[in-house]
Amino acid sequence: MADAPPAAGDAAAGLYRTIALIRGFEQRAVELVRSGVIRGGIHPCTGQEAVAAGTCAALRPGDVVTSTHRGHGHVLAKGADPARMMAELAGRTTGLNQGRGGSMHAADFAVGVLGANAIVGAAVPIAAGAAWAMRRSAAYGPGTYRPAAADGTDRVALTYFGDGAVSQGVVLEAFNLAALWRVPLVLVCENNGFATSMRPQDTMAGTVTARAAAFGIPAVTVDGMDAEAVRDATAEAAARARTGAGPSLVECVTYRFDAHHTWEHTARPRYRTDAEVEAGRARDPLEVQGARIARATRAAIDAETAGLLDAAVRYALDGPHPDPATALDGLYASGLRPRAGAL
Amino acid sequence: MPNLSYLKALNRAIGDEMERDPAVCVLGEDVGVAVGYATAGLLRRFGPDRVLDTPISEQAFTSFATGAAMAGMRPLVEFQIPALLFLVFEQIANQAHKFALMTGGQTRVPVTYLLPGSGSRDSWAGQHSDHPYSLFAHVGVKTVVPATATDAYGLLVTAIRDDDPVVVFAPAGALPLREDVDFGALAPVPLGSGRVHRAGTDVTVVAVGHLVRDALAVAEELAGTVSVEVFDPRTLYPFDWRGLAASLERTGRLVVVDDSNRTCGIGAEIVATAAEEMRLTAPPRRVTRPDGAVLPFARELDLACQPTRAQLRAAVEKVAGVG
Hints:
The complex is a heterodimer of chains A (343) and B (323). Chain A has 343 residues and is α/β, with parallel strands linked by helices. Chain A contains 13 helices and five strands. In chain A, α1 (8-34) packs parallel to α13 (295-318). With 323 residues, chain B is α/β, with parallel strands linked by helices. Chain B has two domains: 3-185, Thiamin diphosphate (ThDP)-binding fold, Pyr/PP domains (Rossmann fold), CATH 3.40.50; 195-320, Rossmann fold (3-Layer(aba) Sandwich), CATH 3.40.50. Classes of the chains: A alpha/beta (343), B alpha/beta (323). At the A-B interface, α5 and α6 of A face α3, α5 and α6 of B.
């Protein structure tokens, strides 16, 4: 890019700012689930913020990402407006998807978020296809995704998936396709220690990185609680993708502080002890990055973020509920109207 | 006048669209050598950047097409076997189909899924003989079943140009058909427009895909006894309800012949909608595969599960009150 790289201090503060934004967003979203404003619950990413912050810090505005059911952090880190994201979770017409997607399908094509996905692993081949298409000049038809910043054809796609997803067949098929066709893809495995209630040692034969190695995909494992380590590994993977050398995998080892889904807050399934969670929380990405910046800077960011997020909540609450008569508007891009369910 | 085969019509439609629009690309297994013929010559004409031979990874390459479509391409995905649609039902019904709505209109997924040789191919047995078009109509994915070479060309062109996912079933029973055509007159056929192949006044037979030919044969057999109108919906979703209603205004009697399983098959939907909304003077009938049919291997058993002309004739006579 033509822009000069930011000073190191700015970069550290920038990472902290993103982590703090996601942390604060999830706290408020959980509160809104409790108060019934957000229906259907959410999958909070609390504890995993450094993965979203670090990976997106290594991307350019024209790059794209696909996300998971636990995707709020990814969407925010890529640049979506927190207010419109909160409005989406609240099912308002002012939301990113006009209230038609919700937490698990949040998308913001204007900033390169091609959608979170509720089926584990399903977005990995979608990202691979987008990456392949982005290399091609033909892929700029009217009404299609167009990067806000026209930064050439060396754009990359980055796809997030969890430790549970590496046992999903379509993910491994996509590894093969991406490697075979050298698509500019960055594979980010967010290993948070749990596939819902199951630990990797109970679901995964072998390892994440060995799966990549089987397809000739370079892979590294990094501390997913350290946003700078995540950023640096992602930058290397993205640079490799931009040169046409194909996909790389970054496994980020992190820990999910909160529930698989807010449903757990009342149902209380017992797959880990409170003591384990306490121990897991001891290494907090917010503190890791917070320790790298000046105290005054941190305080200023915290205050600014709180104001921003309080405004986001107000924006969400102020947004209109959709008109039921519009329920299936936009079902078909071609404008086809489905028949009504009753005469 | 040149003679066009159904398969050549499919091939011509893809080639013409690739020529017209650089965003059109083809993915599938063995599309380079074109084992199914529909993609013959395309690799040579358009190169490996637009004609991609895939590994045997149907689920991944189907969603790969979704991602490519969201980033501006217009992929056509070929499947050699109709049952592969069961493997990729998640990728089509749950991913590609849902993105337009779920994103609040931020994207579109213009992918065409082509099935050259759907239904029974004559003793290809249980896992190569399905005709799952009703499943796609049920979930609301645009579903096309051309009966003739001209319509195969026109509907495939439209499917490729459409901004939504479209599944195109080219029934094995229709692939050998040939037609004299004026190439200059080949044109896109809009989705949701049926075609009356033969006008009649006593009974409307709605025939899907290759069964149009059987319906025409039965109509001819019954000429003089029962005047049969043969209505080919051409697309099952969206369906040309207006065209069917107009036909039933003339005849008031309905038989549907549909090469899919009976329960929740497209025939059931056609009969139900006609009963709710259209003019019927006699109870309608369906001729379909049996409930839950798995086509057995032996030729006699395979044929025993498919709709026959004799069954159709009996159904027409029954609703016409002459049986």
